[in-house]
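Here is one chain, start to finish.
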Amino acid sequence: MGENKLQDENKMGVMPVNRLLLTMSLPMVISMLVQALYNVVDSIFVAMINENALTAVSLAFPVQNLLIAVGSGVGVGINALLSRSLGQKDQKKVNHIAAQGLFLILLCFLVFLLFGFIGVHVFMRGQTDIEQIVNYGDVYLRICCIGSFGILFQLTFEKLLQSTGRTFYTMITQGLGAVANIILDPILIFGLLGMPRLGVAGAAVATVLGQIFAAFLALNFNLKKNHDIQFSIKGFRPNRRLIVSILYIGVPSILMMAISSVMTFGLNKILIAFSSTAVAVFGVYFKLQSFIFMPVFGLNNGMVPIVAYNYGARHEQRIHKTIRYSVFYAVGIMAIGVILFQMIPGPLLQLFSASENMLSIGVPALRIISIHFVLAGFCIIANSVCQALGLSVYSLVVSLMRQLIVLLPAAWLLSLSGNVNLVWWAFPIAEFVSVVLCVLFLRKTLKKIKKDM
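Its structure:
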């Protein structure tokens, strides 16, 4: 082959589809579960400080979610383009995509660094005037933004490993990063082992250090194990065409998760009109549901490069099989989540030192919101198929419709009743609308595949 050709056929084009999907997804499912565990443990320790600390972390969540959105979205763009180039066996383009992606994520970090210095207080003050909550949120969020290069580069380096099928190494990076966070949390929050007692700041420092550790691990694995990509900064220049291509695929994904941040911010504003406890319940829900959604996102991350690779390699049947298996597994995982949230909501909330007031709000909240989980499993897979084939605008429309056009207005209208329990019904209502759109868009995407083949 020529110098711009890859020497060997990647496993994504030859391994039996079900085994391939499980091989690529299971490591990420496991690592995502560990990620969910550290998110929950982080909040459990914060809740031990007091309920206002838990509320502050919940109010900071939209910006943290935006950080993940940017890192994941740029990664999605890199992943899709790089996997497609692997399928086309264009080595030179593979290397260029990786380099341009890393440059782009560096620019993103500089934006969040600036926000950490000048925007955090305004953001927290815009949500509540409870002084202790504002102070907790200021400290926590500022540290997360200033140290955000950890999560941004961790996500990018992990996407490079995923795009070449080396998902086992992302399990290690995410898992060890999460374990580091879990170990550091009590030490830094409560001042164990001779360390100063940092409180909420300790939770933020533990999070940032865990992410930086994971980023360095992921970089090391890329340099030593990811032979499908050759990294070099020699002669590097920003390539506007490739950066635009990455953003063309990645920005809709960023916007979809950014929409989630806007939704969370808006819903927090609606809920805090009832009580700060309602906001804390919403924050706890997000931590708990990550145990259900994170494995589906792990499955999803394993699916995307398979679909993109086989689209580039023109293997139509392998694409269809991958989608069918992915939907089956996603819906199954979500069904387990529904059972857990319906049967044991009280014990789940007690993990966060829930007061009687929090239980009275939280138990019906978990039961009502979880009704939509199974539909959400299908929608996650359908949206990601569209993204993998460069049709991210479909996913953006679904996300916009579900979270801003339906969910937030529905939550506001239901809040006018004066009954906070009715607000939670906005989630199932919005998911029903999104599943209808997902079915329509997935059918159009499958027709595009057939036409292109």
